[in-house]
Amino acid sequence: MAKTLGKSEAALLAYTQMRGLNLLRSGELLGPLGITRKQEQDLLSRMVRRRLIAQVRRGLYLVPPRLPLGGTWTPDEATALNALMGDKGARYQITGPNAFQRYGYDEQIPARVYAYNEKISGERVIGQVALALMKVAPARLGDTETVRTPAGQTLIYSSRARTLIDAVYEWSRFDSLPRAYAWIRGDLQAGRVRAADLVDAALRYGNQGTIRRIGAVLGELGARPALLKKLEGALRSSASQIPLVPGRPRRGPLDPRWGVVRNG
């Protein structure tokens, strides 16, 4: 059922639409609408509750270009994420389940948007958009692809090679092993990714466990010796053994070059 707009609500939407605004800050309505700061805050809070606008953070709101049929509105994922990251002045890249779905590794549509960024960590909800934000060091951002949405927004995704490395590195967060090994094998065989790109991404964005596991997988798949040597050169001396698939019993042959137990 369509919602009936009050006079102040209609005035707010008319003001933002006339000026072509999609972001609104507290204090911006005092003069144009002739209201007090308390009246403005009550109006904004009421419109958020009624799902007429969406709160990015306290004092910053997304507003619709026009009120849709039915009278409720939520921003799309790109609009919500870009508004938050833009407000924080943060670089980001979408990874994990969203990237898995984008590149065809997983058909399931994620319930939230997973994104590395350099400023914010934790869960956020903007309108009906759930965000899972992972704060990382600036050096861990990179190897990305830019995607233009039908609505004209720009989204930054981890590249195909970087997504595969993230799937090995973040195996616990994304529950992505051993599936990621099949994705790597399939992409290499189909020519969608190069072993050299995986090596470079593992060295720049992985850790010791990631490098060892990627080395073991690429070695089994017949990668060039020079690439494997490049990975090997980044390893610290260690007598420890790690499983190829964490969480499974460490039963299987040992790959002595990488100290990896092939348990799956």
Fold and architecture overview:
The protein contains eleven helices and twelve strands. The protein is of the alpha+beta class and 264 residues long. The chain has three domains: 7-73, Arc Repressor Mutant, subunit A (Orthogonal Bundle); 75-158, no CATH class; 161-168 and 176-264, no CATH class. The protein has a four-stranded mixed sheet. Strands 1-3-2 form a three-stranded antiparallel sheet, sandwiched between helices. It has a three-stranded mixed sheet with strand order 10-12-11. A hairpin with a 2-residue loop joins strand 2 (54-57) and strand 3 (60-62). The model has no long low-confidence stretch (mean pLDDT 95).
Quick structural gist:
This protein has 264 residues and is of the alpha+beta class. It contains eleven helices and twelve strands. The protein has helices at residues 7-19, 30-33, 37-49, 77-88, 96-102, 160-169, 171-174, 179-190, 195-205, 208-220, 225-232; strands at 23-25, 54-57, 60-62, 92-94, 113-117, 122-126, 129-135, 144-148, 154-158, 242-243, 254-255, 260-261.
